[in-house]
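Much of what follows relies on a compact textual record of a protein's fold. The record below shows the convention in full:
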Amino acid sequence: MSEGTAVAGPDGAPRCPWALSTEDYVAYHDEEWGRPVHGDDALYERLCLEAFQSGLSWITILRRREGFRAAFAGFRIADVAAFTDADKERLLADPGIIRNRAKIEATVANARVLAQWSPGDLDALIWSHAPDPATRQVPKTLADVPAVTPESTALSKALKKQGIRFVGPTTAYALMQACGLVDDHLETCVARGTPL
């Protein structure tokens, strides 16, 4: 077996190796990662969670996701945009999330920017950066999966130009992977090309 190729999971089906370390990862890999996500609030949530993940393991975020949803009003853009300084202090004391002041500030600031946009604008901007699947090689091993692409760099620049914070090219690419703009499941992975 080549290094980084799909590995048999608990049910014997081949999966991306990163998905097999915990049951939480198996479920996330099989049911969410790489599936198309639409809707401004849903994409805002993914954008925020990817920003909080920066410098941490994704499992750290995944296991706190319900805590994040409770703390950030379900990631409804209009509600988070109305957060006050008192809300920010509450968040800094919330053990159910990652208590990083800069990331909390960015999450609220980003909501305030997005609250000024028309419905569907965030969805349209993000999805306008989805590459043509026909132009992408199907990854056979983890080494074939990039961390940054020209599209993620362009998406990062487009979001930053609009005032969105904590979205560098690597975070933008992780967002693209998580939200199905790209399908980076390995060639022999059971979840590759799985429809919604």
Remarks:
- The CA atoms of residues 75 and 196 lie 22 Å apart.
